[in-house]
Amino acid sequence: MVDIQDTSNETARSVYDVLQLITFHELKESSILIELAMWKSRIDGDEARADCRVAIPGPAKSLIMEYCGYAGFLRPAIDGA
Predict the structure, then answer these.
(1) At what angle do helices 58-68 and 10-42 cross, to 10 degrees?
(2) Which of 62, 57, 80 is nearest to 72 (CA)?
(3) By CB neighbour count within 10 A (0-12 exposed, 13-18 middle, 19+ buried), where does 65 fall?
(4) Is the pLDDT assigned to residue 13 strictly greater than 60?
(5) Averaged over 40-69, what is the pLDDT?
(6) Could you tell me the residue ranges of all domains in the chain?
(7) Which of 5, 6, 30, 53 could link 11 by a cystine bridge, Cβ 3.0 to 4.6 Å?
(8) CA dist 60 → 28, 29, 43, 53, 63 (Å)
(9) In the predicted model, is pLDDT for residue 4 greater than 70?
(10) Beta bridge pairs of residue 61
């Protein structure tokens, strides 16, 4: 076993940065699936496909992040802010 001392917390900071990137990617994929499901639920109507697109509003993004356990780890990018 190798004993590594990291006095400046550089390793912990790097691991945290990597975890944030992974978490962001997972959250992005989750929100894409939710938006796709919402879009597909409206596409069966008489509207044009482009008009069926639904953006997830900011409060819903925050709730999704909280539900997935990302609250406090990532901050949502609120549209228009």
Answers:
(1) 120
(2) 62
(3) buried
(4) yes
(5) 76
(6) 10-68
(7) 6
(8) 14, 15, 21, 16, 5
(9) no
(10) none
| 6: its two tokens | 């990291």
Q: pLDDT band at 60, cuts 50/70/90?
A: confident
Question: Residue 31 corresponds to which tokens in the numbers above?
Answer: 């929100």
Q: What angle do CA 79, 49, 37 make, to 5 degrees?
A: 65
DSSP string, 50-70: GGG--PPPHHHHHHHHHHHT-
Tokens describing residue 26: 């997972």
Token code pair at residue 57: 């509003």
Q: How many residues does the chain have?
A: 81
